[in-house]
Structure formats: C-alpha cells, structure tokens
Amino acid sequence: MSNTKKLSVASLFVAVGVVLSGFYIPVGVSKVFPVQHMINLVAAVMLGPFYAVLTAFATSVIRVSAGTGSLLAFPGSMVGACLAGVLYRRYRCLGAAFVGELIGTGLLGAIIAYPVAALLLSKEVALLSFVIPFSMSSAAGALIGLAGIISLEKTGMFYTKIEGGL
Q1: Does pLDDT of 152 surpass 50?
Q2: What is the rounded CA–CA span in Å between residue 116 and residue 112?
Q3: Does the keyword Membrane apply (predicted)?
C-alpha cells in the first residue's frame, strides 16, 4: 500500500475516532473510550506501527481540542497503537496485535499516564490507578476490532497475510 493510500486510510480512521468520540464510559478520572482501541488494532494491522501511532496522535489532538478527550488520551492510545503494530509486523498474527494493544495501553500507557495526570492535570492519583480503566477500554475496543477484522477476512474483504505487510 502506498504512503498516500496509508495516509488516506489513517485520515478516515481519525475521522471515525473523532465522530464517535462522544461514546465513552467514565471510570474514575479517565474515560473508557473503546472506539479508539478498536481503531488502534485495525490501523496497526492495516497500516503498521507508524501510521497507527499517527492516527492515535491525530485523533487525540482533535478530541482534546474539541473537549471530548483528556490529555490521558495521548499515552493511552499511542503506546497501544505502537505496540500492536510492532507485534503484528513481527509475528504476522492478529493475536499478537491484540496482546500489543492490551499491554501497550492497559499497562504501559496507564503507567505513562500517571505523570501526565499528576503533573499536567494536577490530579492526585496512585501510580497504577489507570491500569484497570485503561485495560477495560483497551480490551473492549481491541475485541471489537479483532471481531471486525476476522469477520471481514471470512468474507474476503480484508486480507491480513499480504507479503511485505500492509
């Protein structure tokens, strides 16, 4: 897939993420936003780690600017998108991308969110306070993304095993 096509698809993912940004579940000081994690997984598989992170970053910038997201959207989405893309590229397995999204967002992104909350948002939170809400959001979204990819693969509309990657 050419860079122009990747950028176009990434832009569509950003649009979907922004349009559906009103769908969230508040959990503590964070927002469970499964749509972003669904997009992370699909973008990681289709576009690779660079464009998946770019998609997560652009979506976060627009959501924060529009008031539908917080600064926690950055570490929560970008780390998961990156790890999902890296693991998918390495193992060519949807399960690896799924695990990458879960670990990247649910654990690493949650830990990185701590200084963002403490220093930039002036929230008094414990170091691991974001692990549960980030993991819930990531698991829900990644499962939806995984189900969507598998369904599309069965119909022949989505093919993940292309030589050289997508």
Answers
A1: yes
A2: 7
A3: yes
Those residues whose C-beta lies under 8 Å from the C-beta of residue 116, and which sit 6 or more positions away, are 71, 72, 74, 75
Quote the CA–CA distance of 134 and 94 in Å, as a whole number: 20
For residue 33, the one-letter residue type is F
Give the Cα separation of 42 and 142 in Å (integer): 9
Pair 6, 42: CB distance under 8 Å: no
Q: How many whole angstroms from its chain centre is CA 92?
A: 18
pLDDT one-digit tens code per residue, 56-110: 999 999 999 998 878 888 988 999 999 999 999 999 999 999 999 999 999 999 8
CB 30 within 8 A of CB 134: yes
Token pair listed for 126: 């414990």
Helix, strand, or coil here: 49? helix
Cβ proximity of 40 and 141 under 8 Å:
yes
Between CA 2 and CA 23 the distance in angstroms is 32
Among 145, 126, 136, 142, CA closest to 25? 136
